[in-house]
């Protein structure tokens, strides 16, 4: 490391010396040419090049000083100051020469006018090529640009307005050029163009506020050093000189405390309020823009907002309002009718991720989840995200969706929490969210036996060999429809394996994407009766699937005789230990296939021996889905049969009992939960008499119709009674029934809900795979 630092120091020294020599050569040439009265354009170009070289040398000098010790630093700074003053002297020599030339030019013009030559065409004068930095619309740079332009072009008497206008346009770009792009190049338009440009960008008040805010935001120097103090001093003097140039010298008292506190107050206010203040001050020129008038304006705005907020709670006076969404939020769309499908679909606004620009929230972005905690903090700071909800546009202390600690402090988002002792508990809790592979097996409707012709899966037996020498025989299912391979947690623990975890996203039918933090384990597999092996990477989950039904006898299939099969035929019920996805599917499956017709099993050669499969694989999309349970036909038929037997007509309507999953169901008594929900509702309505009255009317109507009844915890059959929690929903856009009661059958009590005990029946929508096949 010491050798690298020495090498870097030597390279920096060489670069700085070369840059200084170049600047010295330019200074010598400028001094020489100024004495010989060379054309001013050539000398001006050399001065611009000298300034550029000096800027580069100054950057190198800062880096060079950081590598010096305290003894060498003082000597080096003294040498640099001498070099700096030489550059300043050269600039002064050039400006003296320039003023001399300008004065000489004015004298010649006056003499020509006196001699009667003023009638000659002024356009015959040659316009010098002024080396101005083009102005791009930055208000902070306009003062310097205009002073240079005024000195070099605007104040010159030997140029007419058309020539000045051409010079002005050639030194503008971007928004600044667009401001005067509508003016044609004529002598009469030049003063108007200058006036428009200065009105737009010569904003002294904004520049003063900018310098005040920059001074207030200067960071405290934590580790004092000559270099750090020098940089801080230069920053301070930069702002002080700029303020002095605008007549607001803070040292002489020209910058008042009123102006300072006005700038700081505006900085703390929302941008919308600052916009209103600018409009107010522009339209009322008689009112001075000071701290007193600004605070009075803010007070009036607060009064207006409070009045508007208060009147929002009053009753509607018949004015038609826009439609509301299903969640009670006001929508901006065209009013229309709600359909049954719309009531069953939860819609969400599509938001674009600020990191990858795709349509999802950043909290589920795979790129964000793949980063470590420190990198997520850097991303959140770079994108300006709230540390509590990961949304843009507000700070953590202003977050309305944030959670509070017992001390009232706002908590940070879970994805931004740094590693601590509690992380292991969080990881274990995450793994409890079971990833399932649900297998559908057809059952005979008469005796409930499994049918092989409709239920064979790609199951093999293999031996898992751990690095510590422990071996275990496992039941594997080969699944070309899964992107990754999975292994049961119990198998990993029995082998004594422990590996780091990674974030993954699990996608499945009928379910949103789920994010897990799972252990990545490397397994070595071999055949039960051979030594062929392969190494696969699997993700550890708590559970893969339920019990796989037994295999049938194979004697009737002559084409499979003599083959060594990877699974046992026949065998009893087994549990799947390992799911091998497409990432390792072709590491195991070979090219050799032995088949008869579609009604017979097909044997596929693998490194574990042959595995059998049949035409059920073409229905694999219906049989397997991560996180989705697919009910079998026997259960559906049973529910349908009970429904037909229990439905009856009472003279007005059809009545049917609740479709319990099992007649012997035992549900807990949730009287406490329903009572607590009612008490919460009463607290919300106690401050709104109008809504409380509407709620009371709806409840009385339900009682009169016999839909509900008053009860207490002593009523009902034990294990068969469930009290439905409810809440009131109000629709301000309705003119008749503004209140309706929503009964919550999905409310959890001790980890279960009423819906958990009821059969949801099979989905009535068409299967997406069937729809796609039609194309």
From TrEMBL:
Give yes or no: UniProt keyword Coiled coil. Answer: yes
Residues folding into a coiled coil are 2-36, 664-698
Key words, A-Z: Coiled coil
InterPro entries xref list: DUF1759
Q: Disordered: where is this region?
A: 314-333
PANTHER family, from UniProt? Answer: GAG-LIKE PROTEIN (PTHR47331:SF1), PHD-TYPE DOMAIN-CONTAINING PROTEIN (PTHR47331)
Protein's UniProt name:
Uncharacterized protein
Species the sequence originates in: Trichinella pseudospiralis (Parasitic roundworm)
């Amino acid at each position: 490391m010491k050798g690298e630092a020495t090498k870097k120091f030597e390279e920096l020294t060489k670069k700085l010396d070369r840059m200084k020599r170049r600047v010295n050569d330019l200074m010598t040439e400028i001094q020489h040419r100024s004495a010989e009265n060379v054309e001013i354009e050539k000398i001006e170009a050399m001065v611009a090049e000298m300034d550029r070289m000096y800027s580069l040398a100054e950057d190198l000098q800062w880096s060079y000083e950081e590598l010096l010790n305290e003894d060498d630093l003082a000597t080096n700074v003294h040498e640099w100051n001498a070099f700096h003053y030489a550059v300043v002297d050269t600039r002064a020599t050039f400006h003296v020469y320039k003023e001399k030339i300008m004065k000489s030019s004015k004298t010649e013009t006056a003499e020509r006018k006196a001699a009667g030559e003023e009638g000659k065409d002024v356009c015959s004068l040659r316009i010098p090529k002024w080396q101005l930095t083009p102005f791009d619309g930055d208000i902070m740079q306009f003062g310097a640009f205009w002073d240079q332009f005024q000195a070099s072009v605007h104040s010159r008497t030997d140029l007419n307005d058309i020539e000045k206008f051409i010079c002005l346009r050639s030194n503008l770009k971007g928004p600044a050029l667009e401001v005067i792009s509508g003016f044609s190049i004529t002598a009469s338009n030049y003063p108007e163009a200058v006036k428009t440009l200065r009105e737009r960008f010569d904003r002294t008040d904004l520049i003063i506020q900018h310098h005040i805010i920059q001074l207030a935001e200067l960071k405290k120097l934590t580790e004092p050093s000559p270099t750090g103090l020098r940089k801080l001093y230069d920053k301070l003097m930069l702002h002080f000189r700029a303020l002095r140039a605008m007549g607001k010298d803070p040292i002489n008292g020209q910058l008042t405390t009123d102006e300072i506190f006005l700038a700081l107050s505006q900085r703390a206010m929302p941008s919308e309020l600052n916009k209103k203040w600018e409009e107010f001050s522009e339209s009322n020129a008689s009112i001075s823009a000071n701290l007193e008038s600004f605070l009075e304006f803010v007070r009036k705005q607060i009064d207006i907002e409070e009045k508007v907020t208060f009147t929002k709670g009053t009753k509607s006076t018949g004015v038609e309002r826009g439609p509301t969404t299903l969640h009670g939020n006001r929508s901006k769309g065209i009013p229309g009718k709600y359909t049954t499908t719309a009531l069953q679909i939860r819609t969400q606004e599509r938001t674009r991720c600020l990191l990858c620009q795709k349509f999802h929230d950043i909290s589920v972005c795979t790129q964000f989840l793949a980063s470590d905690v420190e990198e997520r903090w850097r991303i959140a700071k770079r994108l300006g995200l709230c540390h509590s909800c990961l949304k843009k546009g507000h700070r953590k202390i202003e977050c309305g969706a944030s959670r509070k600690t017992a001390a009232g402090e706002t908590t940070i988002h879970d994805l931004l929490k740094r590693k601590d002792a509690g992380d292991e508990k969080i990881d274990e809790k995450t793994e409890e969210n079971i990833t399932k592979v649900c297998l559908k097996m057809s059952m005979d409707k008469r005796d409930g036996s499994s049918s092989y012709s409709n239920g064979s899966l790609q199951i093999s037996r293999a031996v898992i060999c751990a690095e510590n020498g422990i071996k275990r025989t496992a039941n594997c299912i080969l699944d070309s429809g899964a992107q990754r391979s999975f292994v049961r947690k119990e198998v990993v623990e029995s082998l004594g394996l422990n590996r780091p975890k990674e974030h993954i996203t699990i996608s499945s039918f009928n379910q949103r994407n789920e994010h897990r933090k799972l252990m990545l384990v490397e397994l070595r597999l071999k055949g039960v009766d051979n030594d062929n092996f392969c190494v696969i990477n699997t993700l550890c989950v708590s559970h893969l699937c339920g019990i796989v039904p037994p295999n049938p006898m194979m004697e009737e299939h002559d084409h499979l005789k003599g083959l060594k099969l990877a699974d046992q035929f026949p065998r009893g019920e087994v549990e799947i230990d390992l799911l091998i996805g497409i990432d390792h599917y072709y590491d195991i499956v070979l090219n050799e296939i032995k088949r008869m017709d579609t009604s017979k099993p097909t044997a596929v050669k693998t490194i574990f021996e042959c595995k059998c499969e049949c035409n059920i694989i073409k229905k694999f999309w219906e049989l397997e889905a991560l996180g989705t349970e697919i009910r079998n036909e026997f259960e559906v038929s049973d529910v349908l049969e009970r429904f037909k037997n229990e439905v009856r007509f009472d003279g007005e309507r059809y009545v049917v009992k609740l479709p319990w999953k099992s007649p012997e169901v035992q549900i807990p008594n949730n009287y406490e939960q329903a009572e607590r929900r009612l008490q919460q509702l009463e607290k919300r309505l106690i401050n709104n008499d109008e809504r409380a009255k509407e709620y009371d009317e709806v409840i009385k109507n339900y009682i009169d119709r016999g839909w509900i009844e008053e009860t207490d915890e002593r009523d009902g059959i034990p294990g068969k009674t469930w009290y439905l929690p409810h809440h009131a929903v109000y629709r301000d856009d309705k003119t008749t029934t503004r209140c309706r009661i929503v009964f919550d059958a999905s409310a959890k009590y001790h980890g279960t809900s009423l819906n958990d005990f009821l059969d949801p029946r099979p989905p009535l929508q068409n299967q997406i795979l069937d729809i796609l096949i039609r194309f």
